[in-house]
Amino acid sequence: VPLVESGGGLVQPGGSLRPSCAASGFSLSSSVMRWYRQAPGKQHELVATITSAGGGTEYADSVKGRFTISRDNANMKVYLQMTSLKAEDTAVYYCAAWGPFIYWGQGTQVTVSS
């Protein structure tokens, strides 16, 4: 499986989580990496993007200033540091690789609730 997410869970509003995405079987360093999320009854939303070498990042307005995407190409990992979490951040979070091929992970559930 090219991408496997982990690190989701249940957290209280205002809390933090750091989901990770483990890559295998392809050249992570050649791929732009993205985190998406899908809340119940809603379409997929692009949350964060990081360039192949990690020098550039972009964020959805809804998470800007609260989420940070990072990558470790040597260890084939991509991370999404999430802070100041809100109930509306509740969703399944997916990582995706955009390179010579496109890969998607299976998702990890993040629930923000008191």
How would you characterize this protein structure?
The protein is mostly beta strands. 0% of the residues lie in helices and 48% in strands. The chain is built from no helices and eleven strands. It has strands at 3-6, 9-11, 20-23, 32-38, 45-50, 57-59, 67-72, 77-82, 91-98, 102-104, 108-112. Strands 2, 4, 5, 6, 9, 10 and 11 form a seven-stranded mixed β-sheet that branches. Strands 1-3-8-7 form a four-stranded antiparallel β-sheet, with no helix packed on it. A hairpin with a 6-residue loop joins strand 5 and strand 6. The protein is globular, with a radius of gyration of 13 Å. The N and C termini lie far apart (34 Å). The model has no long low-confidence stretch (mean pLDDT 96).
In terms of topology, how is this protein built?
Elements: E1 3-6, E2 9-11, E3 20-23, E4 32-38, E5 45-50, E6 57-59, E7 67-72, E8 77-82, E9 91-98, E10 102-104, E11 108-112
Parallel strand pairs: 2-11
Antiparallel strand pairs: 1-3, 3-8, 4-5, 4-9, 5-6, 7-8, 9-10, 9-11
Please tell me what the overall shape is. globular
Order of helices and strands: EEEEEEEEEEE
**Overall pLDDT metric:** 96
Quaternary organisation of the protein chains = single chain
Instruction: Summarize the amount of helix as a percent range.
Output: under 10%
Distance between the termini: 34 Å
Treating each run of at least 4 consecutive H or I residues as one helix, how many helices?
Answer: 0
How much beta, percentage-wise?
A: over 45%
| Count of strand segments | 11
